[in-house]
Write a structure and sequence with these properties.
Blueprint: H1 4-11, H2 26-41, H3 43-56, H4 66-79, H5 81-92, H6 97-105, H7 107-123
């Protein structure tokens, strides 16, 4: 039997709650109940995808100062529409049908929240983006 909604929710990591739900708007509830757990679940993939983005863009990122690396991350997620859409797809693909219906009602503001959260997550892990050492062939 297909139990996709429960299967999807079951694999998501638990996120600590700091505020009662009564004080949150619908978008903030969606952010905390859906987006945060999905981004945490997808974090290793998010890092791998961004690392691939760096490599595909000739590794310019590696020659930048830390401040410019942070700006590079922002620019990649806010200005590169193709990359942005790929990341949104990685996240939206983990929605249940009901979550997707809720998402479509507020997609514009939720997309902003989603990208802001992804940017902050990548910026907070900038130390993971180092050049890969080439494998030696014996």
């Amino acid at each position: 039997m297909n139990d996709r909604p429960n299967d999807i929710k079951r694999i998501r990591p638990e996120i600590g709650r700091t505020q009662s739900f009564g004080q949150m708007g619908l978008e903030e509830k969606f952010q905390n109940n859906t987006l945060r757990p999905i981004l945490k679940l997808q974090n290793p993939l998010l890092i791998a995808v961004f690392h691939n983005y760096i490599v595909k863009h000739k590794g310019v990122f590696y020659d930048l100062s830390v401040e410019k690396r942070l700006a590079y991350i922002e620019n990649a997620l806010y200005k590169d529409q193709k990359f942005r859409n790929a990341l949104k797809g990685m996240i939206i693909g983990h929605f249940t049908v009901d979550e997707y219906k809720d998402y479509t009602a507020y997609s514009s503001s939720l997309n902003k929240r989603m990208m802001n959260m992804a940017v902050e997550r990548l910026k907070n892990q900038v130390e993971y983006f180092q050049p890969l050492k080439e494998k030696k062939v014996l």
